[in-house]
């Protein structure tokens, strides 16, 4: 596994855009280097859907600190968060620790229910801001999944095609990485509903 | 052996000396001289520095940001039982986190009655076990009888002991059947050679040991032994990130080895979940 802190726990996440729908998927492994401890650890949090991989203690800290800030925002402003606001809060949170960073890579996806506008953003562990991209991947298997994602992505896919593309890219990509896999979860977000599906993957 | 004595051939109990003697039936050796410490430069390109052991240690310790990782990321196991020896291996090769291959043959068929398993550096295991195969064949031709497992494993252990500290990475099990019955030896790159009823080598060996220790009995039937070996590899493949893909099982019998099966561990995991012997 190497002595790299970002691959200590392993894990992977993928997000893809479609026409008025977005999908985010992650694997379910929780492990410490070679040892697999649990196979039900999904890395997706919150309703605007944001996801972390890598060092799981930090994952929980970051997600809870972010939840604190977003709750405070909603109480003060008396309205729900937009995806871009969540993303900016997250990158700000990460950059606050620029010289002693959280060991976390983040992906944020969102959908505006009125306009149908889709958002997919990713971030490194010190809060680099990305544009609103079609496809984003983070984690130990990200290189392998990027290749497959670029292959399966088509512009303006509907929800079913998007689900197929996302799940195939993730499942086949993690088969080339020893630190991720053991099943997967895919969230497909549309204007009126969020569909959560569990995928059957290789358990080794 | 009168002809052999006339030609100056040394007898069986001088086997070691006969390997290095100049006056033996060297027709084979003219075409392919024996690999020993003096003529090694003909076979293996030596590294361009004086002390390979020290240099390899530096490289392993990540000095100057170069790091070659020799990880024994695998699961191999073998155990003796009433009807011979059962050998089972996985088939995954990892380089750091990347799964380089899911179809590596980790059981090396040295000859029809000797098997070796591979853990550690694939090149090291494959090369030295092939050199061992050559020694075993020459022994068989010279002495008109099959080599014993004890002797074969000793040859291998002595060969790698010459390279101790130079960074070979090899954890192999030599399995065979000779006139003393089934034989199982574990040989590793530091020159260790031990014999016992059950071994498992590799990063997934801890998981395999727990399954083996739970239900192993010497008086098992062959079918039970195959099932135990299979389950041990499948459980190790599930928990260990560096093991998985295909499980291969071999059975060493009096008549030689037989390949039992070569199936995907993932299919077995879902099958074991169905009959509740595995949980995930």
From TrEMBL, chain A:
A GO CC term? cytoplasm
Q: Which SUPFAM superfamilies match?
A: N-terminal nucleophile aminohydrolases (Ntn hydrolases) (SSF56235)
> What is the organism of origin for this protein?
Rotaria magnacalcarata
Q: What is this protein called?
A: Proteasome subunit beta
Q: What is the top-level taxon of the source organism?
A: Eukaryota
Report any Pfam family annotated for this entry.
Proteasome
Instruction: Tell me the InterPro entries matching this sequence.
Output: Ntn_hydrolases_N (IPR029055), Proteasome_sua/b (IPR001353), Proteasome_suB-type (IPR023333)
User: What does the entry give for GO biological process?
Assistant: proteolysis involved in protein catabolic process
Automatic annotation (TrEMBL), chain B:
Where in or outside the cell it occurs: the entry states: Cytoplasm; Nucleus
**Pfam families given for it?**
Proteasome
Q: Where is the active site?
A: 74
List the GO cellular component terms.
cytoplasm; nucleus; proteasome core complex
Q: Which residues cross the membrane?
A: none
Q: Which InterPro entries match?
A: Ntn_hydrolases_N, Pept_T1A_subB, Proteasome_bsu_CS, Proteasome_sua/b, Proteasome_suB-type
Q: Which UniProt keywords apply?
A: Cytoplasm, Hydrolase, Nucleus, Protease, Proteasome, Threonine protease, Zymogen
The catalysed reaction is: Cleavage of peptide bonds with very broad specificity
GO BP, sorted A to Z: proteolysis involved in protein catabolic process
Q: Which GO terms describe its molecular function?
A: threonine-type endopeptidase activity
Q: Relate the protein's function as given in its record.
A: Component of the proteasome, a multicatalytic proteinase complex which is characterized by its ability to cleave peptides with Arg, Phe, Tyr, Leu, and Glu adjacent to the leaving group at neutral or slightly basic pH. The proteasome has an ATP-dependent proteolytic activity.
Quaternary data: Component of the proteasome complex.
Family recorded in the similarity comment: Belongs to the peptidase T1B family.
Q: What is this protein called?
A: Proteasome subunit beta
